Amino acid sequence: MTDLQTRRGPVRTAPPTGAAGAGTGAAPAARPGLLLALVLGGQFMAVLDTAIVNVAVPTVRTDLHASGAALQFVVAGYTIAYAVLLITGARLGARYGYSRLFQSGLAAFTAASLACGLAPATGWLIGFRLLQGAGAALMVPQVMSIIQRTFTGRARIRALGLYSAVLAGGIAAGQVLGGLLVSADLFGSGWRPVFLVNLPIGLVLLAAGARLLPDLPGDRERGFDLPGLLVLGAALGLLVVPLVLGHELGWPLWGWVLLGASALMFALFAVVERRIARRGGQPLINGRVLGAAGLLPAVGAVFMIMLAFAGFMFSFALHQQAGLGRSALRAGLSSAPIAVGFGAASLYWQRLPRRLHGVLPPLGTGLLAVGYLVLGRLLGDGSGVGAAPLLLTAVLGLLAGCAYAPLFARALARVAPADAADASGLVVTAVQLGQVVGIALLGSVFLGAVDLPASARGSGHALLVTTVAIGGVVALAAGFAARAGREERRAEKRAGRREAGEEG
User: Fold this and answer.
1) Contacts (Cβ under 8 Å, ≥6 apart) of 289
2) How many degrees, rounded to 5, is the angle at CA 384 between CA 371 and CA 342?
3) Which residues pair with 4 in a beta bridge?
4) How does pLDDT run across 241-292, given as a tens digit for each residue?
5) Residue 394 per-residue DSSP state
6) Spans of the chain, pLDDT less than 50
7) What is the pLDDT of residue 90?
8) Neighbour count for residue 55 (Cβ, 10 Å)
9) 20 to 30 A from 290, CA-CA: which of 18, 59, 188, 359?
10) Residue of 77, 81, 144, 136 lying closest to 104 (CA atoms)
């Protein structure tokens, strides 16, 4: 029996974290390993571009004579479009086919990357970055849906671990690769290779996708829920835009107005979805998904872990560059241990004794909160990043991965294959929003606690303040993780009683 399903029917091998329905009637794939490499390659490029541009900002400013606000939109435009359109991308995949939307999103992302690399002026670059984010939003939700539909049992758990490793590695790799490309100044091209590097990779993936992607047709009869999409898109936009731009613009009044309006739009979204469900329609996120045991608290914990992870990576890089005077490349390399630890734990956590799997998320997040506080104390005097802090960041990465990866698997374990697109859109949006909010919120905490240009001691103090905030966020994540475990155990007990009653 292969790891992939065949046309003969679903393979019902449940993952160790809970009962998961198998996929439905997916086309066979001759090389599942290559298929996984293909879709995770697309995911990696999308994550990479959330970080790789940061180190190119000074050269973009010089080359294009860009203003500070324009540069902020160059960096943030991609993230804004990406975060706002993820749910839309998931629903389009469910309607028109996951493989087709993956290829379409990959083609749009690759073309937009080429356009960014050739942009003649700042305005063009901002517009192309928005298109690049839209392409990523079409592509990324299909990755999780393809994994859910084609892998089962332990193969699915391993695929989800690799997915988590790509999320962590992409953030660190963006800083390192961006520093390398800008420092190399290939043929005098300055900042442009940070976008053009996507072109050869994208073309290879597109060619491979034509051969490897399975036939996963969508359901054209499924409702599109345009009102829900519009309201949710507006709510996410109203939330993300002020968070991303607020600190740079001095937190203007309009930013607070937009944040308040986003809360109202989220409430309106809930009302719209309930009305659609009562009328027998198909809401944007199926009620079966939201009702899956442990899913919502698991998603909440995943959101907070990624918020803390992305916020720390951003603040740690700022501390090294602004406070310690390190180059972008060296700062990126110093971030590698936490990313490697995160990725290794995401891949291998299931090899730990089964009795530990249930307690990994709350235990890991609890220890992670303490670890961030200890690291803040070590770096708070601005003395530098030595061997002990780097070793501790690797431990933090391991703890974060041991908490995040089981939660990620748990969030999807009890979702039916027919709801894979809804679930993947929800989880991936939580991950992406966690990164956006973490960088915006915790970055603001760091920048608010330091005066630029910063001294090493002042920057260290700001990092200490930021790690205290991070510790509080992760402690809250521990509570959500514990609740997810309790809900799952109660669901398992109810299922056991039902089975016992049926046998009786």
Assistant:
1) 295, 415, 419, 422, 423, 426
2) 40
3) 151
4) 888 777 777 888 999 999 999 999 999 988 888 888 788 777 777 777 777 7
5) H
6) 1-28
7) 82
8) 27
9) 359
10) 136
